[in-house]
Design brief:
- The complex is a heterodimer of chains A (350) and B (282).
- Chain A contains 15 helices and 4 strands.
- Chain A is globular, with a radius of gyration of 21 Å.
- The mean pLDDT of chain A is 86.
- Chain B has one domain: P-loop containing nucleotide triphosphate hydrolases (Rossmann fold, 3-Layer(aba) Sandwich), CATH 3.40.50.
- The model of chain B has no long low-confidence stretch (mean pLDDT 90).
- The N and C termini of chain B lie far apart (65 Å).
- In chain B, the strands form 2 sheets. Chain B has a 6-stranded mixed beta sheet, sandwiched between helices.
- In chain B, a hairpin with a 2-residue loop joins strand 1 and strand 2.
- Classes of the chains: A mainly alpha (350), B alpha/beta (282).
- Bound molecules: adenosine-5'-triphosphate (ATP) and magnesium ion.
- The site of adenosine-5'-triphosphate has 12 residues of chain B, from strand 2 and helix 1.
Chain lengths: 350, 282
């Protein structure tokens, strides 16, 4: 919702429910799609890789935001659910040669089931206690990947078969970018739709006031599990895409730090906002890549910076999150909203 | 003959969710006892709420009024007794989840407003429609077919409630930003959207100024008289209780000390004693 609504009128409830009702809003969407389409021609290979990672992270972050931002259930387990998706897709690709699209879908389903299961503590626990419990899910999942010998996943795995869908083999940086950007766009649309309906409203109701939610007839326990399942389904899909693209799979890419990183994305981007999750993913992954590149450029002239890069990165991350929490707890999504309102009024000011 | 056009907007939806005839027992509380550790919040409480009436529950602070409502809506589990709702068939409420009870037609408001405060008025009211909607994650994600049609259909009823409670100006405002009085009104609206068999209101007028109280009393009367909804309400203001209710139950220290018509109850010595005792202590 924008803060300026004067001049937009609806004649039917259907119209009133539309997501984009002014030409400006539609034009902006077209611009974003255009930018995605032409990005491969404008970006260097390095930044195109980064953009691809951002798109993957956006899917996972949207999922996490459904759970944390919209439903109010803090989770430190997103890394684990990404791993579930990645290994589901990777192992089926290696052992069965399943169609990658089916593999992605399967990863989503398995992610949902595992996520729903690890959501069970949410029926008893809230807030920080729940966060600790979800931490356990992260630990249990990585432990299982390493120690369940029938998975054979203790050592890194390689997917030899290239991802081929209907005769088309996805290869090269820009093809992967388009494919994954398309997945991210679909994820964003699905999540946005969700919050136009009763299911999404039930999630937000649980976040805002769970007793009242129950009293108006929302099965709070069921919806909490559903939120975990949905969130992990998104993570599963993101994990699967990582596996197919990297063709290389190790549990070490899905550690606890990854979970924290995803939490950082939605905090910086804006809790309870689909676009916020995307901004957050872009910000965090982009910042990481920028610092990486900066470090590379400084190599030679400032060896000490290069040496301490991981530490400097951590500090900048921590600082950014703290600054966001202090100055704009509603994140980049809110900042973007404010700039839009400002621009719409330009050159007139209050 | 002069043809007079219809001036009032006709409501298409019936907000009353009960099919019982007027005067039949809608809700029967029988020998309910509830204890918290050493506190006996309710002791052998019995009362019968009749379809179409406004049933007031009064009593001094800490008498157990809210506890009784919480037992009815399933938030508390009494150790003994039964609470039966007659809607279609007999539903036993003491063993059911609150969301189940809401689905059976018990809607409530809370003593300390419990709205979804980051949501708009419309969204809060739409949540009142939750039990009447079919929820399917897949169609929701696609916002496709049935999911969209359902949103539009339920919005129509919600708009009638918006009209009824004169909330038009606030449709898309976040409820957390509304004044206290309007928040209370939205909470009433959310409960009404359930199309309740019994509408349970915990101090709907507490903390309001006289004008807001008058508005709220009028809405409750309209809900009862025009829409035919059965109301159970807790209220401290004796004037209001005597004016709008047709049945009063008085609780004191978790027991029913009087039950009957307002006039009869207000002259009951035990009631006077309970209230005077409170005043003396205060
Ligand atoms: N969840 C709870 N845990 C422990 N004790 C409780 C709980 N809820 C209520 N009580 C106790 O039960 C008794 C009745 O409380 P209740 O809230 O039902 O009173 P009330 O009649 O609604 O009072 P008021 O007019 O102040 O709202 C009080 O002694 C209260 O302390
Ligand atoms: Mg009370």
């Amino acid at each position: 919702m924008s803060t300026i609504t004067t001049g937009v009128y609806s004649r039917t409830y259907r119209q009133d429910f539309l997501l984009r009702r002014t030409w400006l809003e539609r034009a902006r969407l077209a611009l974003v799609l255009l930018a995605i389409a032409v990005a491969p021609f404008l970006l260097s290979v390095y930044w195109l890789e980064v953009a691809t990672q951002i798109a993957i992270a956006a899917i996972g972050a949207i999922g996490l935001n459904i759970l944390v931002g919209f439903t109010g259930q803090i989770s430190l387990g997103q890394g684990g659910f990404l791993a579930v998706g990645a290994f589901t897709a990777g192992l089926t690709a290696i052992h069965t040669g399943l169609n990658p699209l089916a593999g992605v879908a399967l990863a989503g389903v398995v992610g949902a089931v595992v996520g729903g299961f690890f959501g069970l503590p949410a029926l008893r626990l809230k807030g920080l206690y729940l966060a600790i419990a979800t931490l356990a899910s992260q630990v249990i999942i990585t432990w299982s990947i390493i120690h369940l010998s029938f998975l054979g996943a203790a050592e890194p795995l390689a997917i030899v078969e290239p991802a081929t869908v209907f005769g088309w083999t996805v290869s090269g940086t820009w093809e992967w970018f388009w494919v994954i950007a398309a997945f991210a766009a679909v994820a964003a649309v699905l999540a946005t739709n969700l919050f136009r309906t009763g299911v999404g409203r039930a999630f937000v109701a649980i976040r805002d006031q769970d007793i009242a939610a129950e009293a108006v007839g929302v099965n709070v326990a069921g919806y909490k599990i559903l939120a975990f399942a949905l969130s992990s389904a998104f993570a599963g899909v993101a994990g699967a895409l990582t596996a197919y693209r990297d063709t290389f799979l190790t549990w070490e890419s899905f550690t606890f730090e990854i979970s924290i990183l995803y939490l950082a994305m939605i905090i910086v981007g804006g809790l309870g906002s689909v676009s916020g999750a995307i901004y957050g993913a872009a910000f965090i992954i982009g910042l990481q890549a920028f610092l990486q590149e900066l470090g590379g450029n400084l190599q030679g002239s400032f060896p000490s910076v290069q040496e301490n890069l991981p530490a400097i990165q951590q500090i900048i991350f921590g600082l950014t999150i703290v600054l966001f929490l202090i100055f704009e707890p509603r994140g980049l999504a809110r900042i973007w909203q404010r700039s839009k309102d400002y621009l719409r009024l330009w050159p007139f000011r209050y | 003959m002069v043809f007079l056009p219809e001036l009032t907007r006709a409501y298409r939806h019936n907000l009353n969710g009960s099919s019982l005839e007027r005067g039949a027992t809608q809700l029967e509380v029988k020998d309910v006892s509830l204890r918290f550790g050493g506190v006996q919040a309710l002791e052998d409480v019995s009362l019968a709420v009749r379809q179409g009436g406004i049933h007031a529950v009064i009593g001094p602070n800490g008498a157990g009024k809210t506890s009784l409502l919480n037992c009815i809506s399933g938030l508390y589990r009494p150790q003994r007794g039964s609470i039966a709702l007659q809607n279609g068939k007999r539903h036993e409420l003491t063993k059911a989840r609150p969301s189940r009870i809401a689905k059976w037609g018990v809607a409530r408001s809370f003593q300390n407003i419990e709205l979804f405060k980051h949501m708009t008025v419309l969204e809060n009211l739409m949540l009142g429609r939750h039990t009447h909607m079919r929820h399917n994650v897949l169609t929701a994600l696609l916002y496709w077919g049935p999911a969209e049609r359902q949103e539009i259909r339920e919005r129509e009823l919600v708009e009638e409630v918006v009209d009824f409670l004169e909330l038009q100006a606030f449709r898309k405002q976040e409820v957390g930003r509304l004044s206290y009085g309007f928040q209370k009104r939205v909470e009433l609206g959310r409960a009404l959207c359930i199309q309740p068999a019994v509408l349970v209101l915990d101090e709907p007028m507490a903390g309001m100024n006289t004008e807001e109280k008058e508005d709220m009393a009028r809405f409750i009367l309209d809900v009862n008289e025009l829409a035919g909804v059965t109301v159970v309400l807790i209220e401290h203001d004796m004037g209001v209780v005597m004016d709008i209710s047709d049945r009063v139950t008085v609780l004191d220290f978790g027991r029913v000390i009087a039950d009957g018509e307002p006039a009869q109850v207000s002259s009951d010595p035990a009631v006077i004693e309970a209230y005077l005792g409170e005043q003396r202590a205060a």
